[in-house]
Structure formats: C-alpha cells, structure tokens
Amino acid sequence: MTKIFFLVLLLVSAVFAAADITRVNTITTDAAIEAAEAVLKAARKANHTVAVAVIDRNGKYRLLITDDNAGPQTEESAKRKAFTAVSFGQPTSNLTAAAGGDGVTIHDIPNTLFLAGGVPITYRGAPIGAIGVGGAPSGDMDEAYARAGLATIHL
Amino acid sequence: MTKIFFLVLLLVSAVFAAADITRVNTITTDAAIEAAEAVLKAARKANHTVAVAVIDRNGKYRLLITDDNAGPQTEESAKRKAFTAVSFGQPTSNLTAAAGGDGVTIHDIPNTLFLAGGVPITYRGAPIGAIGVGGAPSGDMDEAYARAGLATIHL
Amino acid sequence: MTKIFFLVLLLVSAVFAAADITRVNTITTDAAIEAAEAVLKAARKANHTVAVAVIDRNGKYRLLITDDNAGPQTEESAKRKAFTAVSFGQPTSNLTAAAGGDGVTIHDIPNTLFLAGGVPITYRGAPIGAIGVGGAPSGDMDEAYARAGLATIHL
Amino acid sequence: MTKIFFLVLLLVSAVFAAADITRVNTITTDAAIEAAEAVLKAARKANHTVAVAVIDRNGKYRLLITDDNAGPQTEESAKRKAFTAVSFGQPTSNLTAAAGGDGVTIHDIPNTLFLAGGVPITYRGAPIGAIGVGGAPSGDMDEAYARAGLATIHL
Amino acid sequence: MTKIFFLVLLLVSAVFAAADITRVNTITTDAAIEAAEAVLKAARKANHTVAVAVIDRNGKYRLLITDDNAGPQTEESAKRKAFTAVSFGQPTSNLTAAAGGDGVTIHDIPNTLFLAGGVPITYRGAPIGAIGVGGAPSGDMDEAYARAGLATIHL
Amino acid sequence: MTKIFFLVLLLVSAVFAAADITRVNTITTDAAIEAAEAVLKAARKANHTVAVAVIDRNGKYRLLITDDNAGPQTEESAKRKAFTAVSFGQPTSNLTAAAGGDGVTIHDIPNTLFLAGGVPITYRGAPIGAIGVGGAPSGDMDEAYARAGLATIHL
Amino acid sequence: MTKIFFLVLLLVSAVFAAADITRVNTITTDAAIEAAEAVLKAARKANHTVAVAVIDRNGKYRLLITDDNAGPQTEESAKRKAFTAVSFGQPTSNLTAAAGGDGVTIHDIPNTLFLAGGVPITYRGAPIGAIGVGGAPSGDMDEAYARAGLATIHL
Amino acid sequence: MTKIFFLVLLLVSAVFAAADITRVNTITTDAAIEAAEAVLKAARKANHTVAVAVIDRNGKYRLLITDDNAGPQTEESAKRKAFTAVSFGQPTSNLTAAAGGDGVTIHDIPNTLFLAGGVPITYRGAPIGAIGVGGAPSGDMDEAYARAGLATIHL
User: Fold this and answer.
1) Closest Cα in chain B, distance from residue A69 (Å)
2) Which of C8, E48, E134, H154 has the fewest Cβ atoms surrounding its Cβ within 10 A?
3) How much is the average pLDDT of H127-141?
4) Which residues pair with E123 in a beta bridge?
C-alpha cells in the first residue's frame, strides 16, 4: 500500500515538475516475445514459415524473427506491414482499398506495404506499435497470425 | 541614408565585378521557424500531430520538426512533398492529377510524393523553397497547415 | 483539485491495467524548438552558423535546423553528435578520450561521432534525448551552444 | 525404430541422389529465441538493457530483440558483432587485438565490429551462426550475456 | 560399404544430438557455374548478351556473371528475378499476372521483379535457390536461357 | 604513312595476341563536354534550366552538369533517363508506351525512368552511352535538347 | 546608365521588401565548365586522367566530369575533396594535419576526404563552392590541377 | 588472309572515322570464368572457401562467385580488393604500407580495401580490371589464389 502511494506521488510530481517531457508508450520486450511466439505457433500449425516483426511508434524494431526456412522477402515484408499499420493506426487490410485506388494514393508513401498482415497495437486510442507478418501463402493468413500475436498482449 | 547609399554601391559593384557568381535565394532560418510554428499551431488546433519540413531550392533541409507522437511515416512524407513542390514550383495538390494519370508520368521521378501537403515558397516568380506537411488524416488538411506556414513568410 | 485526483487515478490504473506497456520519455516539440532557438542565439552572438539537431531515445529527429549558410557537413555532424550523446548518456566531449584510444574502441560503432558538441537530455537518471550542434570553428564552441539549448529545458 | 530406419534411408538417398546440392547448417528459430531470452535474463540481472541479434552463416537475421529502453546504437552493434563472429569463427574479443593493430587490418572489412560481445555458434568445427549483444557498459559484459545465450544451444 | 555405413551413423547421430540445428539446402558452386555457362551458351546462340545470377534461399549471391557488353540494367534485373523466384517458389512468369493486377499486389514487396526470366531451383518440394537472367529482348527469352541453366542441375 | 602502317600492325597484333581481351566503346570526355554545352545552349534559348548527364555503357557518369538554378529533381532525372536509353538502345520516348502499359512492364526495372529526355549514343549498331536531360517543362523539350547534344558527336 | 539605375533600384527594393529572404552565392555553370576544362588541360599535360567535381555550398554537384579511362575511385574522391573544402573553407591540404592527428578528429565527419586535391571557391570571405580533383599519382598534383581550375574563376 | 585484311581495314577506318569515340579494354566473360575456376581450384586445394570477384575498369562486376559455405564477409571483401587493385593499378599488397601509414592516406578513399588479395589485370601498361579474393585465413593466401586466376588470362 505504501508502495502504491509512493508511486502515485512519484507520478504526480513528474506531471508537475517536467512540463517539457512527454511520454511515448510502447509494448514491453516480454510482451513482444510472447506475441511473436503466438504468431509462430499459429503459422506453424498451418505449416507456414513466416517472419514476424514488432515495431514501436517510431517504426523501430522491438523484435524480428524469421522462422526456419522463411523466404528472403519475408523480413522486409513483415517490417513494412508493421510500419504501415502503426503509421495509419489500422490493419493494413483496412487500407488496401484506399492504397490501391487510381492515381496518387497513400501507396506512394515511402517504406509502406499495404498487403494484409500488419496490425496496430492500440492503447488508449492511439497506435503505440504494430505486429507485421509475412510469408504465408496469402495476406489474410499473415493477418490471422498477426492477430494471434496481438491477442496475447494485455492492454 | 548613407548606409543605404553604401549598400547600393556594394550591390552594384558585385554585379559588375563577379560575372562568374550567381545568386540563389532561400528563406531565412528565422522565417522557417516562424512558418513551422504556424504549421504546428494550425494542426494542433484540429488535434493533429504532423511533421513539417522546410527545404531550399537544392532540396536540402532548412528545418524539420516532428510533433509529439507523430507517426513514423510523417518525416519522409513531409520532406518529399516539399521536395516535389520546390521541384515543380506548384503545390503538390496541383500536380496530383498529372502524376496520377495512366502510364509513365512525373510520378516516376525519384524522391517525389504527389499527395497534397507540399507548397512552394515563390519569390519573384521562382520557387526558392517549399514547406511540406504530413500526418493529418487527409492531404487537404496537410496542405491547409502548410499554407498557414506559408502565410507567415514575407516575400 | 478534482482534476489532479482524477489524473492520479488515471495514472495508477494505467500502471496496474497494462503490464505489457512501458513508457519512453521524450522532450516535447515546444521544448525542442525553444532549445534550438537558444542554440542559434548563442551561436549567432559569436557570428557562427551552425546546424542543431534534437533527437529522441530512438535516435529519431525531433527537430533539425540548419542556420543560414551553414556548411553542408553540419547537418550530419549535428545528428551524429546527438545520436552519440543519447546512446552513451554523456556529452560527446566526455567520450572523446575513450573513443580516440588505440585499437578497437566505441569509435567503431556505426552512426557515432565523438567530436564535442553533443549533450544528452537526462531525465530521472536516464538519457531521453540529446542535442547536437555542428558548424562552429571548434567542438568546444559547438558544445557551449548545445548547452545553451539544454539550459532551456525544464526537467 | 522403423522411423529411424526410414530416416536413415532418406538421408542416405539424399547424399547419393543430389550431387549438386550442399547443406548449410543453422540454428532453429526456437533455439534462437531460447538463447535470446537467456541473454536478456543475464543482462537484466545486472540491470542492463541490451539488444541481441542472432544471425546465420549468411549474415542474415534469425532474430533481433532490443530490450526496453536500449540505446539506439545497440541494434546495429549487436548485428555487427554477430556478423564478425560468424565471419571469423571466433568471439570478437579474440579478434580485437588483430583488428586494432597498426596499419591495414581486418578492421577495414565492411560491416564488421570488433568490440567484445559477439560469439560464434560452432557446429562440427564450423561457424554456423553467431550471437551478438550490445548495450552493456562494457564489451566484456556484452560477451558474458552472449555466452549465457550460447550456453542454451544444444549442439 | 563401410564408408556408407559410417556416413549413415554420422547422419543419424547428427539428427539425435543436435535438436537445435536445422539444415538449409543450396546448390553447389560447381553446379552454379555449370548452370551459368549453359545460360550464356543458350543466350549467345541467339546473339544475346545477358547477365545471370544464381542465388540461395537467403537471397544471397552464389554467382553473378555479366556477359561481354551486357547492359547496365541486367545485373540488378537478373538478381531481382532470381530473388522473386526463390521467394515465391515459382518462375516469375507464373507470377506476372498476380503481380500485375489492379490495386495492391505482391508487386509492392521490396526487391522483387516480376518480369519473366527467374526460375526457382526446387529440391524436395522447396525452393532452395533460383536462377535469374536479364538482357534478352524479351522476358520469355530470358526465361528460356534460365531454364537451360536449370536443366544442368542434378536434383 | 609509316605511322598508319605501324598503327595497323599494332591493332592487328592486338587482335591476335589477346584473345581474352574485349573492347568497350565510349565517347570521349571532350565529346561529352561539347554535347553538354550544346544541350545547355538549346535549353537556355528557351529560357529553361536543365541538368544534363552523359553516361557510358556501364551506366557510369562521364559528365553531369546542373545549370544555374535547376530544380533538385533534375540531376537524378537526367541520369536515369540516360541509364534507360543506354540500357535499351532507344530514346526513352520510344519506350514510354511499353513501360506504361498495364501490369508488369520494363517500368519495374530498377534505376530506370521512361519519361522523354534520354537518347542513346549509338555506334556501329550498339548503344555505347547516352545523354539524359531533365528540367524542361515537358519531356519532349528535354529530348529536343538531348538531341541537340547528340548532334555534336561525330560517330 | 538608365539600366544601371533601374538595377540599383531593383536591388535596393529587394533588400527592403523581403526580410525573410537570404541569398546564397554560387558560381555559374559556365564558370564551372571553364574551370573543369582548365583542370583537365593541366592534368592531361602531365598525362594524368582525373575526375573533377565542382560543388556548391550545399554540397550539391554543379559539375562532374571523369576523363577518359579515369579510375573508378576518382569520381567519389573528387566529390568528397570538394565537399571537404567547401565545408571547412580551406584547401584539403591545409586540413590534412588536423584530420590526421591522434584520436578523434574532423576526419570522422561523414562524407569528408582530407587528401590534397580539394580547393574552396571563396567569395567575399565565404566559401561558396569548391573544386575537387582525384586520379593523379599524388594529392599534390590533384591540388595543382584543382588550382588551375580555380584560377579561371573571376571573383 | 582476306579476312585479316578486311579486319585491318575495318580497324583503320574506325580510327579515322570516329574521333569522338574512345575504347576501354576489359577481359572477356570466358576469361573471367576461367580465372575464377582457377582461383577456386587453388583455394580448395588448401581447403579454403573463398569468394572471388572480377571487375572491369569501371569497378563493375564481370563475375562474382562465393564458394560453398564462404563467410558472409567474403563477397564485399573480394569486391573491394578488386576495386582497389584496378583503381591503383597494383596488387593491394603493394599498397598496404602506404594505406596503413600515419594520418590521412589513400586508406580513406571510399570503397577501397587494402588487405592483400586484389591483383590488377594489366594490359599494355594500363589496369583494365582486377581479381579480388577473400576468405582465406590470410591475405597472402588470398593473393596467391588471385594470382592463380590471373595466370590463366592471356594478355
């Protein structure tokens, strides 16, 4: 109880003392590993070898794993799907239609990939990271595996 | 008065003395900061977190600011929109139709991005720089914020 | 008062509800701009044209400004000095000796620059960002200007 | 028993049937995860936040994890140490002296980093991968954590 | 006979002793050279100058040869076609329709090229490498030459 | 006369003595400069500021000039148009239709740009280099200027 | 006379009307070509084949020429020497001692090269560009050729 | 006899007709393959697995082969050694002392590597290409294998 009280004080003082500081949320490493293992487990059940990337709000790797014998394109695919999901705060599958329209679209933004398989990690209404999966025979499967990972994260 | 006269002489002599020198105009750092602050203010009023880039005629950064919690895609988006606007001397929104036409278009020129949000800084009829904004829910909003920045520059 | 109480509850609940979330601190955009303006003011007083970079703990730009007529090497210098300071949690001038020793040293780590001019932004004992300055005739001056920026940040 | 016999037949036939095929060994994904978790556990015990990379004989990522709040330089450091260890088949700490000698040395080979913290995964006398760790206050500690990971791999 | 028996024992023991090791198959260097020579021979018969790339499952070069006077675009074309073929386990010509459809497709995956001329090297049902050819007047010819190379590999 | 005879002998002996040597033709530096000056002169007559690139069969720069105040996109545009023209042995304007067709086309080959403005330098039926121009209001004008340069080369 | 008077007025009005505009000086394209030709002439007299780069204050190419048969390292050498000279406002030969000292020096700043052969173009006390030369047997010769180019520029 | 006479005429006419054309010599593809096979044979005799690169005067790949199980650092090492040898027209082992001296040296030129193992292919006194080898336990061995390749080229 005392510990909680202390913590509260600490947090309150932080809010008042440091007007020039702002906080960015991200998932913990342990949560990223647990999510990645769930992704791999789901993919392997279907005999698929995938790469899984977990990135933070800055687009930086928290985790990257390429499963045994995954194709050489899966690493970058997984990363870009996650980058796209955290950038737009939506699953890449929600964005595919907009990106694939005629003319100039968000498709042209560098480092994005609008194939299904990227899902945002949303906390208090804001995207704080994303999971991206590549390597299954279809993007829908990639997304299903990404969601299996997402389901393990306690928000 | 004497000072102005001296200045005039200085400028005139420059014109005659150095035939091998040419001048490139660019906005001042202070103007770039003032413009960026106007961009951020306009975007925040709508609760949007954006990145703003100000570049010169060479495509080089004068200023880059990413607002608190802006997405990882906004930095490069803002830069490329500004690059595109200064390259073609027009707002990117004017160029979207041409870039998005069928077949080979200016869309293929490297480092460009033809989404709305880039506006040129025009001085004596020539583009001397540009402001690019990325991160709002639509390109039209990005452009509105970029124009709020442009409005602060005295040309 | 009610507002504070509510805030406290909010923070406490966050701590308990989301074991998979961790927080990364960074300075606000406004603080970054204020710091940069202090850097430029200090440098201009000595008639020096510099570039100033403010980066976060991920090594990502919060702000980059190159003053009028700053050399082409200053942008990357400022960024790398800031990167180095936030990586090691010390001013680059403290690291110069270690980096410059015989044989293999931290000097070899990619994207670092151990010239003076980078200072960490430290909050609760941890580096949460850094200011890097390049373009003055000596690294000591670059560092003095960076410190002028740091002095404006309320931690 | 039958299963083993079948396996033996399978392997023998492979050897005879495909003279144009050669095999490259690598550790499994599961082994890479287990090793990485051991690295993180050892580092956290000392309150250090590190990045850990596991790569294969081709220098390609099997796994990359950056622990909560690890510095921005740790990802590339971990990767390059692992790259160096698998390239030369020795811990990077064994190579530091040779790399740091006067004049032209192996230090100049691209993508290498000869700071301690990279250890090869050796199987039947050949390096088949490596673990690289970056972010501890000294390279010796990075190596100790890398070895904690190596100890979990059954060869 | 003794030798075979010994080999069998060796392989069996490997299977049991090293649960953390997995094997990746690739073609031998000699097979890659023989295949490349067959590619060149077929192309020259038609007076075409091509580049030929042989890559492994990791997308890494086993071999690259640019024939006398081949165009500057052929090296990267050959590599990317091979990368694409080994990534998807099919000739690039099989993938052209899917990649060229409306909207977002596999076409957007980085480092791919879906023009005809890339053929996978398939062993026991899995792509273990690929041959890519560029520089002939049409992709169909490039593919024919790639297949001439593939025909020399004993699987 | 003696000199010619000597030269003939020299060339003949070369042909016989060095079966392992082959020759690549390229235009001389002086020819490249003369061509570039003709490009600039033609462009300036119409008050256009362009960049002009002359490259060899390897896609390497022989010459690059960006005229006063040319846009930041012109350097890379000029280079890529020249790269494309020497790769395919035709003016880029001839290739625009093929590149801009539906689905997968030569448009996807890296480092190409199929806008008008690139013309090959053809010698004895083979492309030995190219001139690329960028920066005029239309590709047709870019091509006209490139052709003005080509006209000065004696083949 | 009237023309001069008009010009004076124009310049004066510019100074008063546009406080947010600043001017960057650079040499003209024609001056760059003339300088480059002088560099080549001087080098050829000694039978040396060099590359020559002329860059502006932003480090951007105004001109690049590689003479017939110049080595593949000369292009980047010439560019980096020029980059270094314009960054520091001195010939690279003046900087060699400082860059080559023990420990951390300006040598570590990205994109620099402190071998002799780069000379700044100085106008009114400020570096507005530079000429860089690479490919002669010694840096001193490279510098002599660069100076031959510099001598043709009227400042 | 008639054929030779015709050839002579052809060559002579070329010399007179095309003053704007110059010739660059390079080794043939077949010579490159033969040389590479000799390199591999020599290395394998000592049980070493190496990468071998053959490049032309432009620094562009004619051939790259990485032997079975060669380390991930060998490809770039082989290429850079060859690049260095063709740039300076000498074996890299001749250049090691100069490159490894105190202060600023040729060591700083981009894309070079001054470890032994690169040998130029010299024709009529000029470097027209180079062979680079990497992966043996010492540079001297790499050079011996490179020389075994060089010995097969008829100049």
Assistant:
1) 30
2) H154
3) 98
4) E126
C7 in reach of chain A (CB within 8 A): yes
Tens-digit pLDDT profile for residues H34-77: 999 999 999 999 999 999 999 999 999 999 999 999 999 999 99
E105, E123 contact by CB (below 8 A): no
Reply yes or no on whether the pLDDT at F127 is more than 70.
yes
**DSSP tag of A110:** T
Q: Which value, in Å, is the radius of gyration of the alpha carbons in chain B? A: 18
Cα distance from N-terminal residue to C-terminal residue, chain B: 23
Task: Give the model's confidence band at D6: pLDDT under 50 very low, under 70 low, under 90 confident, else very high.
Answer: very low
Whether F9 has a pLDDT exceeding 70, the answer reads no
Rg, Å, chain E Cα set? 18
CB C90 within 8 A of CB C133: no
Q: Which chains touch B (3+ CB pairs under 8 A)?
A: A, C, F, G
Residue of chain B minimizing CA distance to F71: B87
Q: What is the DSSP letter of C61?
A: E
Asked if the model's pLDDT at residue E137 lies above 80, the reply is yes
**E strand map for chain A:** 21-27, 51-56, 61-66, 118-123, 126-134
pLDDT, tens digit, 9 for 90 and up, residues E55-112: 999 999 999 999 999 999 999 999 999 999 999 999 999 999 999 999 999 999 999 9
**What's the pLDDT at C19?**
84
Q: Are C95 and C106 in contact (CB under 8 A)?
A: yes
The residues spanned by each domain of chain A are 25-150
DSSP state of H106: G
Rounded Cα–Cα distance for residues E71 and B138 (Å): 43
Tell me the CA distances in angstroms from C11 to A11, A17, B69, D29, one per residue in order.
7, 16, 19, 38
Q: How far apart are CA B21 and CA B23, in angstroms?
A: 7
Those residues whose C-beta lies under 8 Å from the C-beta of residue D86, and which sit 6 or more positions away, are D55, D56, D57, D59, D120, D121, D127, D128, D129, D130, H71, H72
Angle of helix B74-88 relative to helix B92-99, nearest 10 degrees, comes to 90
Q: State the ipTM, two decimals.
A: 0.89
What kind and span of H or E run contains G23?
strand G21-27
Per residue, the 3-state secondary structure of chain F, as one string, reads CHHHHHHHHHHHHHHHHCCCEEEEEEECHHHHHHHHHHHHHHHHHCCCCCEEEEEECCCCEEEEEECCCCCCCHHHHHHHHHHHHHHHCCCHHHHHHHHCCCCCCHHHCCCCCCCCCEEEEEECCEEEEEEEEECCCCHHHHHHHHHHHHCCCCC
Mutation pick from F11, F20, F62 vs chain H, by most beta carbons of H within 10 Å, is F20
Query: Do you know the residue count of chain G?
Result: 155
H34 touching E (Cβ < 8 Å): no
**Chains B, C in contact: 3+ Cβ pairs under 8 A?**
yes
| Distance of alpha carbon H94 from alpha carbon H81, whole angstroms | 12
CB B48 within 8 A of CB G44: no
Helices (H), G26-138: 29-45, 74-88, 92-99
Interface residue F110 vs chain E (CB under 8 A): yes
Residue F92 CB contacts under 8 Å (≥ 6 apart), including other chains: F81, F84, F85, F113, F114, F115, F116, F117, F118, F119, F139, F143
pLDDT score, position H18: 67
Number of inter-chain CB pairs under 8 A, F vs G: 49
Q: Residue B9 contacts by C-beta under 8 Å, 6 or more apart in sequence?
A: none
Evaluated on CA atoms F43, F49, F55, F61, the torsion sign reads positive
Read off the amino acid at residue B62.
Answer: R
Residue by residue, what is the 3-state secondary structure of B7-76?
HHHHHHHHHHHCCCEEEEEEECHHHHHHHHHHHHHHHHHCCCCCEEEEEECCCCEEEEEECCCCCCCHHH
The second-level CATH assignment, the architecture, of C25-150 is: 2-Layer Sandwich (3.30)
